[in-house]
Amino acid sequence: MIHLQSLPYNVASFCSMLNYCIPTRRQISCCQASHSLEHNSEQNAVKPSSDEKNIKRRMLLSLVTSCSFPTLLSYGKAKGKNPYDERRLLEQNKRIQRENQVPDDFPNFVREGFEVKVVAPENYVKRDSGLIYKDFEVGKGDCPKAGQQVIFHYIGYNESGRRIDSTYLQGAPAKIRFGTNGLVPGFEEGIRDMKPGGKRRIIIPPELGPPVGPSTFFSSKQFEVFDVELLSIQDCQRRTIGFYSDVVCS
């Protein structure tokens, strides 16, 4: 049996000093054990041996060390950084676009979460709706009207400059009646004032873009860029033969 009465400090009174230390789980169990040992030592008056004295010294040293140098909670302090490091994100977007071999004067996109900033040359025009465009060739003639059919080529890009669609690769231009909600809102607004033979780059913001979701081609809301070449505009008339009716454009 180990006796603690001969220690230079009373263990029970020493446990009260633990109130000034951080109450870690190790210290609480240590204090409970020492109190139990002291209680047993009062009931057993056996003279301690030399080995027992060494054990008591080591226990006392452990108690003193744990209270004098308590373990402190550590908190990682991260280096402060700008949450919207525009320059870094801009250079990253430029690098990715170079890898995708984007055409000249292609706009850059600085994205931080859901916040996106469009960086484009001064010759781009921005409308109140958020649509941005640039004319390469103006074209001649009249602009399309609702009900007419527009025939055009286009190449679609995402923010990283990756090509997502192209009628040139398909080998045939697109044909669709204008003003029938058959086009993405931003696309229809972008070609509304184009003339046949005109070439334009349209930057469509997410609010004017296509719907997103698992049942659509687009998986997230982002800016889309389209290079459009308006080939021609055709008038359309409804034709009825018996019970059959269709629209003919020419």
TrEMBL record:
GO MF annotations in UniProt: peptidyl-prolyl cis-trans isomerase activity
Catalytic activity, EC: 5.2.1.8
Catalysis performed (reactions): [protein]-peptidylproline (omega=180) = [protein]-peptidylproline (omega=0)
PROSITE patterns named among the record's database cross-references: FKBP_PPIASE
Domain PPIase FKBP-type: 147-234
The keyword Isomerase is assigned to this record: yes
Domain of life: Eukaryota
Keywords: Isomerase, Rotamase
Protein name per Swiss-Prot or TrEMBL: peptidylprolyl isomerase
